[in-house]
Every structure is written in structure tokens, then in C-alpha cells.
Amino acid sequence: MSQALVIVAHGSHLNPDSSTPTHAHADTIRETGAFDEVKVGFWKEEPHLREVLRTVESDEVYVVPLFISEGYFTEQVIPRELRLEGWDVSQWDSDGLSADHVTLTAEDTGQQVTYCGPVGTHESMTDVLVRRAETVTGDSDVGDGFGFAVVGHGTERNENSAKAIEYHADRIREMDRFDEVQALYMDEEPEVDDVADYFESPDIVVVPLFIADGFHTQEDIPEDMGLTDDYRKGYDVPADVDGHRIWYAGAVGTEGLMADVILERAAEGGADIGDALELVRERTRGQQTVEV
């Protein structure tokens, strides 16, 4: 039986570059030959979530949401737009971090769809965050003398979003690789505005747990941290702020290794991916981030 992978993401009417990482990761996975088809679908762009399964010829489809946390989009919007028969969020039996997969039938196409949890809560995302630190510093051994900040939106928007930030910060801390690790937020304490106050390390890598670079990661966060007084002028990497060197990495979702997490999700749902994981890890090592 042929198998297809469908990567679903938010997309944007306002920022045409927001879909760039999704297409790039789809291309990376397509090149491994693990799936007969690799497609993408968006909520705010074409091809739309509601139509994407109709573009797939395979009977067996693995759907992986390119979202950071469990919530409105993963629990309501995507299953509704894909018309997954009998969907109920309780089938994931999740605590907000543990959604894995459930196999259902698409009502209008009859395809067997294995609907997976979002990439952002998968344990492999921790490795992608660390890879971002390696990429932005140009040092595959970065760690000693460095602090690491994982940045999220804040708890008011989505409680599960904060859970994902804390989860990965804890996992990076357990590695004992970086001198200090801190979860910071845009809208909640501890705030990313005060990044220098939370670290003693002379160097701090800052990685936003966002799928794509956009208004928040390209404008708000650099200005809030004091990297620049006007994002349009750009900023240095690293930038000197209050006696620290800030290595601002931009959205984690632009890291090539994100394709690994998508594959992990599909494989845990039962997809036969062969040696695709090894191929992706090898090809993305030393690779530049997705340009947007």
C-alpha cells in the first residue's frame, strides 16, 4: 500500500515567507524517498487544509501538524478541515504534551489517516533547539560559557504553549551542556525583554520556539531584547547587551533538522520511513537555516 505524508501548518495572508520552512522541510523529506507522496496544507494559504487530502493519491496518509503546542488548531481546526470521522481529542489521551497519534477515516475521500501530535511537543525538538545554537554560533560544541534561553509567547494565549517551552528548557538543562538554561516569554514573567538579568554567562543563545520567522521573531523580540532600536536597521549576531553577548537565533522552525521531528512523528504513527532519519540528520548537519 502506498503511503503519503501531509505536513499541515498555519500559513499567513500577511507574511508570505511564513510558509517557506514548511515547503523546505517537505522538500528535504521528499528527497529521502521515504514516502510515495509528500504534500503540504495550510489554514491561511493554498493548498488549503480542506482540500489537501484530495491532492493525495495514496490510501494511507500520515498527517503531521507543524505547530508548537496542542490547542485550538491541533484539536479542533485541523481535524475539522480534514473531516476526520469520529475525531475526539480524548483519543490522544494527552496531558498537553503527550499527544501521539490516532488513525481515523477521512469522511469524503475514504483514506486511512493517521493524525499525529504537533512537532513542538516531541522530544526530538530539544535536539533541534540545540542545533539552532550550533548553527547561530558556528560551533558544533557550543555550551561552555554559554547560557541558553528558550523563548515562547506566554501563558495567557495558550497554557499548553508554556508547557512546551518549559518541557524543552528542562530537557536542555538536563543535558548539562550549557552553563545556564532559562525559559523566557514575550507576554509573561520572566520576560525576554530582561534576558540579560537572568544570566551570569557572558554569552547567551536565544532561540524562539516558533515555527516560522515573522512579526514576533523578526521585529518584537530583537527590539525587546535591545539588539536594535529599529528592526529595519538589522542587528549584530552576537550583539552586546548589558555586558552580555546575545546570539539571537530566530525561529527554531527554520532549522533544517526540523524535518527529523516530522519524520519521527510519522514513524511513531506507523509509517515505514526506512533510513530517512539518518539521511536527514546527515544532510542537515552544517546546513544553513531556511532563508525567509
Shape annotation: globular
The poorly predicted ranges are none
Beta-strand fraction estimate: 15-25%
Intertermini distance: 36 Å
Essential attributes:
single chain; 292 residues; alpha/beta; Rossmann fold; 2 domains; 5-stranded mixed sheet; 8 helices; globular; cobalt; Sirohydro_Cobaltochel/CbiX
Describe the structure in your own words:
- This is Sirohydrochlorin cobaltochelatase.
- InterPro entries: CbiX-like, Sirohydro_Cobaltochel/CbiX.
- Keywords: Cobalamin biosynthesis, Cobalt, Lyase, Metal-binding.
- One of its GO terms (biological process) is cobalamin biosynthetic process.
- One of its GO terms (molecular function) is metal ion binding.
- With 292 residues, the chain is an alpha/beta fold.
- The chain folds into two domains: 149 residues, Rossmann fold (3-Layer(aba) Sandwich), CATH 3.40.50.1400; 128 residues, Rossmann fold.
- It is built from eight helices and ten strands.
- The chain has a five-stranded mixed β-sheet, with helices on both faces. A five-stranded mixed β-sheet has the order 7-6-8-10-9, sandwiched between helices.
- A hairpin with a 6-residue loop joins strand 4 and strand 5.
- Helix 1 packs across helix 7, helix 4 packs across helix 5 and helix 7 runs antiparallel to helix 8.
- The longest helix is centred in the middle third of the chain and has 16 residues.
- It is globular and about 60 Å long.
Short description:
By secondary structure, the chain is of the alpha/beta class. Helix content is 30%, strand content 19%.
